[in-house]
């Protein structure tokens, strides 16, 4: 069990005043078994109006707008979350996973949006990795195969890079590996969904010492229950992962999305600090 304090600060700076800005933030952690939200706060400066709602995927969304001229927009999300004791997964066999009832229930997590469509080469990789394995073992093997085929290289892709493009370069970051693994899992008939959140980079990090954390992506696939897997780190999704949102791909869960009327140029800075508390 870990208690984590997370401070996620995003700042936009503009060379000339922005007249108006409309935005949505998906930066509130999920409260669920295995993840207890003790406190959460979202501060926007400046802000003239805000409201909260849940989107189609169940994600908490804060919509806000700024209708006064501004050259800086700062969004600070601060949370204290207790993570641990996630429910055990009760796995089933392929007959259940491939049944009409399951395919109908999870149809949206079997279909690929453009960002998770993978080339035939990745499909063949997934089929080979999963051969002869039960669904849970197959899911782990497919994620491992994607991990082993890719090199983690920051800066060569963006959050909007399609999986096929990242595969062609054999490089990318967490959202690229997650998009590729999702397409590969769909190809063998496993429902799977994208998860966005935070990662404490040190599983055994010291208590009380802030460290530079990460916005992170991993996935969950349905093998009887939702099984969380991290294709980037190949570790168990456990006490250092904090869930913010779930969807089909990154496009369903961006931390911030918005439009503004003002100069095209902008300077963006993002900082995530994570502190393990006693």
How would you briefly describe this protein structure?
The chain is α+β, with helices and mostly antiparallel strands. It has 6 helices and 15 strands.
Set down the secondary structure blueprint.
Layout: E1 2-18, E2 20-25, E3 35-45, E4 49-54, E5 60-66, E6 70-83, H1 94-97, H2 100-105, H3 120-130, H4 135-149, E7 151-152, H5 163-169, E8 171-172, H6 174-187, E9 192-199, E10 211-212, E11 214-222, E12 226-229, E13 241-247, E14 256-261, E15 267-277
Parallel strand pairs: 7-8
Antiparallel strand pairs: 1-6, 1-15, 2-5, 2-14, 3-6, 4-5, 9-11, 9-13, 10-15, 11-12
Helix pairs in contact: 3-4, 3-6, 4-6, 5-6
Model description:
The chain is an alpha+beta fold and 278 residues long. It has two domains: 2-84 and 255-277, Immunoglobulin-like (Sandwich); 94-252, C8orf32 fold, CATH 3.10.620. The protein contains six helices and 15 strands. It has helices at 94-97, 100-105, 120-130, 135-149, 163-169, 174-187, and strands spanning 2-18, 20-25, 35-45, 49-54, 60-66, 70-83, 151-152, 171-172, 192-199, 211-212, 214-222, 226-229, 241-247, 256-261, 267-277. The strands form four sheets. Strands 3-6-1-15-10 form a five-stranded antiparallel sheet, with no helix packed on it. Strands 4-5-2-14 form a four-stranded antiparallel sheet, with no helix packed on it. Helix 3 crosses helix 4, helix 3 (120-130) crosses helix 6 (174-187) and helix 4 crosses helix 6. The longest helix has 15 residues, at 135-149. It is globular and about 60 Å long. It starts with a strand and ends with a strand.
């Amino acid at each position: 069990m870990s208690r984590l304090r997370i401070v996620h600060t995003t700042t936009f700076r503009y060379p000339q005043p922005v007249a108006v800005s409309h935005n949505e933030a998906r930066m509130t952690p999920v409260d669920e078994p295995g993840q207890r939200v003790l406190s959460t706060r979202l501060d926007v400066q400046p802000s003239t109006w805000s409201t909260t709602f849940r989107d189609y995927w169940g994600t908490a969304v804060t919509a806000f707008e700024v209708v006064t001229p501004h050259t800086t927009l700062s969004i600070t999300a601060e949370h204290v979350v207790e993570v641990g004791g996630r429910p055990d997964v009760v796995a089933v066999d392929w007959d259940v996973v491939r049944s009409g009832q399951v395919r109908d229930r999870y149809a949206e997590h079997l279909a690929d949006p453009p960002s998770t469509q993978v080339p035939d080469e990745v499909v063949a990789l997934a089929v080979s990795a999963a051969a002869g394995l039960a669904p849970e073992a197959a899911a782990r093997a497919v994620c491992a195969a994607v991990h082993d085929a890719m090199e983690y290289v920051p800066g060569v892709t963006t959050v909007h890079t399609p999986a096929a493009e990242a595969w062609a370069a054999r490089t990318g970051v967490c959202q690229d590996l997650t998009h590729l693994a999702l397409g590969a899992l769909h190809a063998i008939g496993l429902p799977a969904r994208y998860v966005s959140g935070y990662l404490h980079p040190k599983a055994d990090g010291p208590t009380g010492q802030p460290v530079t954390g990460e916005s992170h992506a991993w996935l969950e696939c349905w093998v009887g229950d939702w099984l969380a897997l991290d294709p980037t780190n190949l570790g168990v999704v456990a006490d250092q992962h904090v869930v913010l949102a779930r969807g089909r791909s990154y496009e369903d869960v961006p931390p911030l999305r918005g439009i503004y009327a003002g100069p095209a140029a902008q300077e963006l800075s993002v900082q995530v600090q994570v502190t393990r508390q006693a």
